[in-house]
Structure formats: C-alpha cells, structure tokens
Carrier domain-containing protein (Cohnella faecalis), 450 residues
Amino acid sequence: MVSIWRQVLGREQIGIGENFFEIGGHSLRASAMASAVSKELNVDVRIGDIFRTSTIKALSNLIQNKEISSYKLITPADEREYYPQSSAQKLLFIQNQMNPQDKTYNMPKGYFINGELDRNRFELAFKSLISRHESLRTSFHWMTGEPVQRIHQDVEFEIDYWQADLDGVGSIVSEFVRPFSLDQAPLLRVGLIRLSEQRHMMLYDLHHIIADGLSMEILEREFIEIYHGKVLEPLRLQYKDFSEWQRNVFLNEQVAKQERFWLNRFSSEIPKLALPTDYPRPSYKSYEGDQVGFILDEKTTMSLKQLSLETETTLYMVLLSAFTILLSKISGQEDIVVGTPVAGRTHVDLANIMGIMINNICMRNLVDKDKIFMEFLKEIRQNTIEAYDNQTFPFEMLVEKLGVTAEPSRSVLFDAMFGLNSNLYSNSEHDTSNIEFIPSAVGNGTPSII
C-alpha cells in the first residue's frame, strides 16, 4: 500500500497516518489511487473510499473487510482498417460536421524556450511522439452511415518555422491557430518561432477529438523526455483499445447502476440558470468570449486550503461551494446545476494513453439561504463524492436518457462550468540544465470548452 501511495503522490516519505489530501492528494490523484489499489490488491476500491478513508491505515482497514474482486485488464483490440468512434469522439465529430470552420475545440498552447535549442532533436522528438501514439495518426470519417476512426501507419508531418521579434508573435499565432480537417491526420500542428539565438517560442495545437487535458500533459512530459534522450517504454495499449473496451465491456457491466444514479439525480424538473445579462439572449449561442485572469493572494489561498483540511473536503469542493452560492445570489435561484470536467481515467491501464477520455458530470446542489456555509459545504462534499463514484457514465448518454430537448441558445443541462486544474504527473527527472520551458498563453478566440 505504501509503495502505491509513493507512486501516485510522487514522494518517498509517507506515514501510515498521514492524510492523503494533506500531502498532495486531490480528486484526480484519488481516482488514480483507487484504480491502482484495485489492480494491485484485487479489491473494488472507489474514489469515494479514498475520500472517506484518507490515510494508509484507514484504507487498509477498509480493504480487509472487502471481498476479493478480480481486476480486469483492458486487452488490445483486434487490428482493423476502421474502428467505431468513442462516445466523446462522436459528439465532437458531429459538431464539426455542422461547422467545419469552428475553432472552439482547438487546443493551442505555447512555450518560450530559453537556452540553446537543437532543432533536429526538437523535430525528432515530435516525430517520435507521432509514431508512439496512435491518436496522433488518427483521422475521422463516415463509413456506411456510422462515424469511424482510422489509424494510419504513417502520416506526413512538418514543423512550421519562423523568425520574428516579440512584436510579430501575435500575428504568427493568429495564423497558426486555424480549423482542422478531421479526415486528414495528424490533427496536430507544431510551430517554432526563432526570437534570438538563445530564445524561441514553441507553438502546438491539437484538436480535442484526439486529446484532453491529461493528453497534453503526457505529450509535453514525453516530448521533453525524448528531447533529452530518454528511451520510453513501449505502450501496451492505445486509444482504440480504450474505445473498444468502453463500448463492449465497461458500458455493458456498469452502465445500469450509474444510469440509475444520474436519472435519480435529475428526476425533478431541471432548472435553467437565469443569469442577468446586458443584452437579450441570442437565438443561437456562440462560443465567442474571452478569459479574465487574476491571482488570489497567498493569505487567501492558504486560508482556503486550511478550510478544506479542517472540513475533510478538497480545495475543489470549497471553491465549488463558493461558486454555486455566487450563481444562486446572482440568479435568485436555489436549484443550481454546474458542469464540471472529470478525467475519465478510472482504470489504471489508461494512465499514459493520449486521447479524449474526459467526461462532463453535473453537480446539482440546492442552496438554502437558511443554512450556514459549513452545512452547505458538507452537502457539497457528499454530492461530489457520489458524483465522482459515477463519473464514467457518458454525458451524452445522460442527455439521451433524460430526453432533454436541446435549445439552440443554451447548453444542455447546465450553462455554467467549474473546473480546478490539477497535475496528475510529477515532474519527470531529466536534464534541463541547458534549456528552460516557460508556458505562454495562446488563445483561439473562444473560452476553454471541455
């Protein structure tokens, strides 16, 4: 058990009485922990168990009282020319068919690179990643009326190079972020701007249909490792294996239970968030928008973290409580539904695979003005744990089962989302003494859409 905690938390010294959430744990790592413990000890451990028994000692006592449950590995899919798309891929594919020029689901990112950059190694690292991950060699098509994905053995890939000063970066970025044709792999673009001999800017852009937030972490981590000469272990599984497992095995075994949970959660009338607006709601929604950045001071941040420890919650739960109360006060409504993205990687075999496994779940909470905040936070904690325990039920399937009619001016089920970004992976140990990567904001003209 100790070795599993060390691996998930990325630290060597862990006491059996230390609280998981006090030593770097969060909901994403709790999901990884539950999956790893289930695999190693052949018991059914859920993310809620990590929240309820958040020390090695308490979790070990819980496991002793659980029945042995054979852990099922995900097996590689048979080799075929085409594969059905996953549920998440279908949703994005159909939306792209309706508006091929939309850039909403582009995922651009940029890094300033300080130091002596080897262009050959830079290019070789990306070509190695394309060879390593089938998602980076996948295109999307219709086949006999069904949306399918095709994995190519080889794809043409070239990096765009420019030379400019800082004043010219903006125009280059604007031209770089452009629509993808989903029938043409790879759905990855990479560019490199030479600012000076010792400074460059790296740009890359992926379409969401082949990646999610964790996929971008995997890509960046492995890019740096390959650039610095590390030989990576071969992948046993690829995204198509997840897609086939989800379609043929997982949904057949667990869909009924999770379906009952979510249908019960939405058994009453589903509220529509009535936020006050400066202008009338348009007939059709657009994804035009912007981002507003601000920084919480250290004192406030530490106070929030301390509150989460004292209440056996997480920073996410504390902030979600505040956000939900804010929406209630602004709208004058008590029944509030907030969407939140979850990684969807509840099986340990999926940890290093690039692809879209993310799912949206709905946090429905009742804001009672007569309750004190601590009571509301306790309810948020319980509702969040239950939602995470049922997080793999596909959002699009929930919409279908509820029979909700989509309104062109609104999103389905919720009009507000809340997410707290957490890094699952610890920083890899590799020599970066002669080169430094500094993140830089790169936008696509729309707010982030999951």
Remarks:
- The domain at 2-64 is CATH 1.10.1200.10 (Non-ribosomal Peptide Synthetase Peptidyl Carrier Protein; Chain A).
- The beta strands are 83-84, 106-115, 138-143, 146-151, 160-163, 188-196, 199-207, 335-342, 359-366, 435-440.
